[in-house]
Design goal:
The chain is α/β, with parallel strands linked by helices. It folds into two domains: about 45-130 and about 230-285, D-Maltodextrin-Binding Protein, domain 2 (3-Layer(aba) Sandwich), CATH 3.40.190; about 135-225, 3-Layer(aba) Sandwich (D-Maltodextrin-Binding Protein, domain 2). The protein is about 50% helix and about 15% strand. It has ten helices and eleven strands. The strands form two sheets. Strands 2-1-3-10-4-11 form a six-stranded mixed sheet, with helices on both faces. α2 links the parallel β1 (about 50-55) and β2. α2 (about 60-75) packs across α8. The longest helix has about 45 residues, at about 5-45.
């Protein structure tokens, strides 16, 4: 073997080693860049708070009501706040179980479950207590709950607060579902009202705010023939990771909406009665209500 052939063999080996080394260094640099980028994204996401609203109306109808609230939260906290919901009550409640939403607007039974299991803190609740309203068409002859014997009654989802209140009221007068009346569980309060207006049900069970919104758009008059005993209403609550100072800012902002023009527009747009500071003890009556707090009943 001559010197030129020996050099060629050695040079080729050195060249291959250099290429492999360069590829390894490039891969390590790329991996480090991806890790840094991922860490930056995760850090940015940790700065983002999500306001999760229970879907008592469809997401399309909720967005214009709660987007202004998210904007106000963004202003007082100095961080991004994203409005989120889910397409159904069941999906929303499943999301509550697995996702750490910073702020939630939820019905009373879901709040108690979140507080007791996940440590959520109350911020502000509806200034109006929650009642289940039995609504009929204006020309209907029904005047009391016993008039629904043998009839179809439309409800929001089975685990909703007004459905639980309504079923308890019906049982108080001796009416049991399936035996004495046929329950029809719809996806939202407006879907319940559509069942009434379409003639698929003799009554719809709803709450005051969604009923007021419906009346703003409805062509056919309706009337309330029964109101259930009340419990404390829907509320805003915060995840434990939201600092004490941030919770104080949010609470002060929410309860101030009735005292400013932008705040009054928020309340009027969603037919909200205003909000007052909430304490966990306000919901003891909900804890004592029969049935599974995070399920049907």
């Amino acid at each position: 073997m001559d010197g030129e052939s020996l050099c060629a063999g050695r040079c080729s080996a050195h060249w291959r080693f250099a290429v492999v080394l360069r590829l390894l260094l490039t891969a390590l640099l790329l991996q480090a860049s991806v890790a840094v980028a991922q860490e930056t994204v995760e850090s940015r996401e940790r700065r983002v708070y999500r306001l999760a609203v229970f879907p008592y109306l469809s997401p399309l109808r909720l967005e214009p009501l709660f987007a202004p609230m998210a904007a106000e939260f963004r202003r007082v906290l100095g961080r991004e706040v994203r409005l989120v919901t889910r397409s159904s009550d069941a999906r929303f409640r499943a999301a509550l179980d697995r996702e750490a939403f910073a702020v939630v607007f939820v019905q009373p039974f879901d709040y108690v479950w979140l507080a007791d299991r996940l440590g959520y803190r109350p911020l502000a609740r509806s200034a109006r207590d929650l009642e289940a309203l039995f609504v009929v068409r204006a020309e209907a002859s029904a005047s009391g709950l016993r008039d629904f014997r043998g009839q179809v009654i439309a409800f929001p989802p089975a685990a909703s607060a007004v459905t639980r209140l309504a079923l308890a009221a019906l049982r108080q007068v001796g009416l049991q579902p399936q035996r004495d009346f046929q329950p029809r569980y719809d996806s939202t309060h407006w879907a319940c009202m559509r069942s009434l207006m379409a003639g698929w049900a003799r009554a719809c069970v709803t709450a005051a705010s969604p009923l007021d919104l419906y009346r703003d758009h409805a062509r056919h008059p309706v009337r309330v023939i029964f109101r259930s005993p009340s419990i404390p209403g829907p509320l805003f609550a915060a995840h434990p990771r939201v600092s004490l100072q941030e919770r104080a800012r949010l609470r002060a902002e929410i309860v101030s909406w009735g005292r400013s023009e932008p705040g009054r527009r928020i309340l009027t747009g969603g037919r909200f009665p205003g909000f007052v500071p909430a304490a966990d003890s306000d919901y003891e009556s909900v804890r004592r209500f029969p049935g599974d707090l995070h399920g049907g009943g």
